[in-house]
Amino acid sequence: MNAPKPKRNKKWSRTLILFAIPIVLISVLAVVWAQMNRQQSGEKEAITFDVRRGDLVISVTESGNIQARESVDLLCEVEGRTTIISVVPEGT
Question: pTM surpassing 0.85?
Fold first, then answer.
């Protein structure tokens, strides 16, 4: 069966509206009043700097380690003691 819908309390809604509207209006007026006082008092928030033409020096100092993006580890699979006879030049 369909449950009956609860009735809204009209007095509660009217009370909420009667208190909300003045609070919003007072808040807006306070913000506008503060802005007008700031402008009249001459407060400036902007920081300025004199500009002159010159060289733009860019330097980077960084420390760390360099590693290869791709590397291959070669391991000797010969058992016992071995001796290196020759080394192949890099890149061959």
Answer: no
